[in-house]
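Retro notes
What went well: the complex prediction finally ran end to end.
Inputs used:
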Amino acid sequence: MRSIFLIVAAFLWGSLQANIVPQTATLSNGMKVIVFQNPLLPSVSVITKYDIGTADDPAHLVGLSHMLEHMMFKGSFKYPKGEIDNILNSCGGMLNAYTSFDATMYIFSLPAEYLELVLDIEADRMENLELKEEEFLPEQKVVIEERQMRLGNHPFGKSAEVCRRALYIAHPYGISPIGYESHIKAYTIEALKDHYKKWYVPNNATIVVIGPYDLAYVLPLVEEKFAGIRAKELPARERTQEPDREGLTTTIEQENPRAENIYIQVFYKAPSLITKPEAYLAMRMLESALTGSDSRLLTRQMIKEKRLALSLGCDYSYGKDDMDFSFTLVLSPEMSAEKAEKFLFRQLHQFLKSGLNVKDFKKAKQESLNVFAFAMDGEEILASLAKNVLAGFPAESIPQYKDLLKSVTIQQAHEMLRLILSKPPVVIARFYPKGKMPNRNYKEIPGL
Amino acid sequence: MNLTKSLTFFFVLVFFIVCAEQPQNFNVVVKDLSIGEKSIRFSPSKDVGVVSLILSFKNAGEKSSPKNKEALVSVLTKAICETTKTKTREQLQDYASEHNVIVSCTSSDDDFIIAAKCPSDKFQQLTSLIKELLLESRFNEKDLVRIKSEMTAITLQSLQSPNAQLEELIKKIILTDHPYGVSQSTYLKSLNSIHPNDLKSYMLTHFSQENLIISVCGEIDENILKSQINDIVQVLPKSSKIALPIDQKIKGPYRTYKQEFPVPQTVIQMLHEGVDINHPDFFALQIAVGCMGSAGIGILWEKIRQEKGLTYGIGAGFSQQDHFNIFCIQTSTQTETVTQTIETIKEVLASIYKDGFPADLVETVKKSFLGNYKRSFSSTQNIATRLMKYQREGRPIDFHNTIIEKISALTTEDVNNAFRRFLKLDEFMIFTVGK
């Protein structure tokens, strides 16, 4: 068990000390290079991002990008199967990867002197990945195991999938990046090869280097390894946009035998603002001002004073396309969903009408600025910064980041609240423990 | 009982902390700064602009919660940050925010730990806050009711995870009546009997100068450091009286213990008696488990995951606690392949026992330690945590170098011999939770 005094707003990043601003370059083949330097780091992290995620996968093969991510560990021309692991282990490095709706990322972390080797591996994997049937078949089984672990074994795994589908009835964000088991079983080695050829090209990639080096040191190495890889025309992305709900709210109710308390999630549609620094920071400030710690007015009222909930949080999700702003509540035992929701909505309306709590906003800002003091200690803050830049936050705005943050006003955060609450929630989901679901005559429905 | 936490600790950190090899350009300064009868293990770090501090009260962890108040230490980790003589929780948070000081309290089975961090010029404000928490915490029934309610909800929900069920099963079978083996139902039941005075009394009897371990890493003047830490030490009583539990071992019966749970994927743990930190083969065995497997390396990883696709993840490792040491293999697989997975693991173990680990794998694992060790020195908090661990184990000040020499000197023969001496192929207790 643990308690933390100061929950530092994790969304706020990087130091603006003169030596910690991203340095950027673009190779002639279109590959982008971003360097975040901290001279004190003994290690280097290299993030290779491909602008291909599961939202751009073929509709019948959702998760193909994730399957390809697994196959990227199975060997390339210069580095046959096992070789990358051997190299990494020989120098005490780590390689991780993840696939989201919008991108696939590979993250090497290893002693700083191995930077060139990592770049060589990534260049070879970009151009010469060896995709073999005999490697694919067992890995396909591994992905099914991964799905079971992440979603099947989780008490709310299936519930979350249903919520997601209700949030996006047409957009590909409606299916989890791992796909359904039927998708996974439909993958073929040919489909993977095709996907790899289409999307793993330099003009669809960004390399981020976080470590003790500056761009003057990194760029020649990147050019040496990647400049010879030719750009290709990228296929059109055929994402269907989510239609306007026109005020319709989907309500999901489930008696979940693995829920111990009533869980409520309320999702509002929210625009993707990551490419607009001022608006993005105002949105994150709103998030923090509402539920950033248990001393905020809303959380204090709901948890400590009214005892409506055991926990309350809000979350702004963003991607290339619009996502959502959600509230999640775990209710106190014996508390009704109706009462808790009523209070939450009433308070939100109150904020909308009378403005956000000034003290909470000031705290949110102070906490976000506090993070900057720790920027030289490890790579955590730089990595967080890099992650946001990779998601679309303009790298050129980073040097002004602290000033941008300071300049966010309570009115701007309030405008964000107005924007979110301008339409009814898209989804309200309630998960009840066994025997706690209210009687809504659903019992008359066969099967319930 | 934090068995899962301990195992996770192993799987994730053994490479970084327990057995490390020194990179050639490794250069970490460690010194002991004396303050009266206590000392601070300190690693200065130039230009970083921050200080990380860890205060660990040895043997004041969850194992020392009184009988029928088994959740007391867990409650304390939360309640200690609620209210002091002069500040409400909100005021404490405001103070922390204003001065940019971060304090967190956690407990393991063995210890109660306060971890803190601040900009270098705020160290006085940080120590002043910690002192206030240690000396002037005020526990009230109202706060406790809410904390207990939150803990109950979290605990009950966590039991819906198959891994938590597995931990419960292991505790029930192996650690009956041991403080490490407190079941979640006992833990929950005990919440009702914990009152403000119990917390206060526990602090008085379990937090003392005698059992306090202090480690610091960061950019700070040594005299200021000593003076500020001394201020904290002086508010504590000289000594504590803590009764320690008996040691526990894995004694069998060596068979499979199965618990039904409605999940599609079964979690599996194979447990074998472990070794303590002073075991003569300790270092060789760390390399041996590295050779057995975790993410991206080792024979189990290769055979079970890469070749057969039976699992998403598999790992082998040691967990060392003061009174219970285990060697564990952990994985998960679909219901239909549980038997095949366990049998394959047994075959792999038998083949390693017979043929030993290949020399190239042993060398690779040794090198892996070296690089991971270097990388793990990347933040003040990581370094302070390592220094605390070494101090707690009674290691000398240059242990971060000694350990390197020991690992570097190991031969393939050392590793294989140690593994054969250690492993009893038929002495695994196997636990599964699933359909």
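What we learned: Chain B touches chain A through 82 residues (CB under 8 Å).
What to try next: split runs per interface for comparison.
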